[in-house]
Specification:
Helix 5 packs antiparallel against helix 7. The mean pLDDT is 92. With 294 residues, this protein is an all-alpha fold. The two termini are 23 Å apart. The chain contains 13 helices and no strands.
């Protein structure tokens, strides 16, 4: 079934159902030996993020269980973060080089590609299977616990607190970006947008003709900020690498290309975000409450 709360079921039942579905799919992906291990890592980490978004939506009603489960899911995903980052850097590097680098820059940057590949090999070094096995054990335990989760509220009352908190944090993070646009503030804003986007997906069924396009705008905004962050991480990695002096000019020129690309992404994302979050949190929550009642 979709990652969505059905109006015909209780919120508690929906939360338990969605959690079990996502965790069961993650376990199945790990157990499927035909799937590429790097794709599996990417997919199961996404499922952890979706689950953390789910429990954030009912955070006040979930009580102390929220903190325990959020920590458990965060720590489980953390087992795979270095493995995923090492693969992402190569993917981002190849994409950016193909799209924005000149032939001379591509030739000069071959050495960086080799260093990134060696770095991934060092990080992986037989760790993939071990990390996935431990990750599987942890999420299997989380799946067993999810069937006993209890909410202290029902209906929209179980949702409104988490919905409002996430929307408020996304608006506050945008304000931080406007005051000081840095890699840190942009990344924090992206994280808040992602969680808000999960909440919109979970509630899409109450008014799909309005919430579906809104969710798509959030997805595009999150992707743009994600691209910006990936470039920033790659810039830091390249800066830390020792490269041959004869290639320094081309590598510095490629660095300028990356900086221009980041500026373009930010110039598009920030005004879009201002429009998305122009509505105050109280008004947004009230509007969705009306959809829920209808």
């Amino acid at each position: 079934m979709p990652y969505q709360i059905k109006r015909s079921e209780s919120v508690q039942h929906a939360v338990r159902r969605i959690a079990r579905e996502q965790l069961t799919k993650a376990i199945a992906e790990i157990d499927d030996s035909l799937l590429d291990r790097h794709k599996v890592i990417h997919q199961v980490r996404k499922r952890c993020k979706k689950l953390r978004g789910l429990i954030r939506l009912v955070r006040p009603a979930l009580g102390k269980t929220y903190g325990r489960e959020n920590d458990a899911l965060r720590d489980a995903a953390g087992l795979l973060s270095d493995l995923r980052d090492a693969s992402v850097q190569i993917e981002v590097y190849d994409q950016l080089l193909a799209q924005y680098a000149s032939p001379a820059q591509r030739e000069a940057c071959k050495e960086i590609r080799q260093q990134l590949a060696r770095r991934r090999e060092r990080i992986e070094g037989g760790e993939i299977d071990r990390c996935l096995a431990e990750f599987r054990q942890r999420i299997s335990a989380a799946r067993a616990r999810s069937s006993k989760w209890k909410l202290t509220a029902s209906g929209f009352n179980a949702l409104s607190g988490g919905l409002g908190k996430t929307h408020t944090r996304a608006r506050s993070s945008l304000q931080a970006v406007l005051e000081d646009t840095t890699t840190i503030t942009l990344h924090e804003w992206r994280k808040r947008i992602k969680y808000h986007g999960y909440h919109v997906r979970l509630l899409k069924g109450i008014c799909p003709e309005l919430l579906k396009p809104y969710g798509q705008v959030l997805d595009r905004l999150g992707e743009a900020l994600g691209d910006d962050h990936n470039i920033a991480v790659l810039q830091d990695t390249i800066a830390d690498m020792a490269t041959h002096r004869s290639h320094q000019h081309e590598i510095e020129a490629f660095g300028k290309v990356l900086r221009r690309r980041r500026k373009k992404l930010q110039r598009a994302a920030i005004p879009r975000g201002q429009r998305v979050f122009a509505e105050p949190t109280t008004a947004f929550v009230k509007r969705l409450h009306k959809y829920w009642k209808l």
